[in-house]
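Pipeline run #58 for the internal structure catalog. This entry was flagged by the ingest filter as a single-chain record with no existing model, so it goes straight to prediction. Upstream metadata was stripped on purpose; only the residue string is passed forward. Reviewer on rotation: M.T. Logging verbosity set to normal.
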Amino acid sequence: QVQLVESGGGLVQAGGSLRLSCAASGRTFGSYTMGWLRQAPGKEREFVAAITWNGGSTYYADSVRGRFTISRDNAKNTAYLRMNSLKPEDTAVYYCAAQYGSFRGATEFGSWGQGTQVTVSS
């Protein structure tokens, strides 16, 4: 029930940083757990990170923990993914996603953005 639009992707060298943004429409943004997932060519879509409706809890894939930070600003209807120490293995299309209520699992996202490409060169 929310429309999501990602931005901030691009080309960066290994070791660099990017911040992705996800702008959401609708008055109920604060009722959703927000997440980021990614998909590389030839691979399945994988969970990256999630943040609960009040920002009280965050969840990260082992591959990004310590390097990526998910955050949200409910007043701006926006979620963010700060990506530091980027590796070529992080190259993928990154999707913003939402699931209503509390975080139920990495496969429970119902609303999706269009995706933004992140390319990390070696």
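catalog note: The first strand starts at residue 4 and ends at 7.
catalog note: The two ends are 39 Å apart (CA to CA).
status: ready for reviewer M.T.
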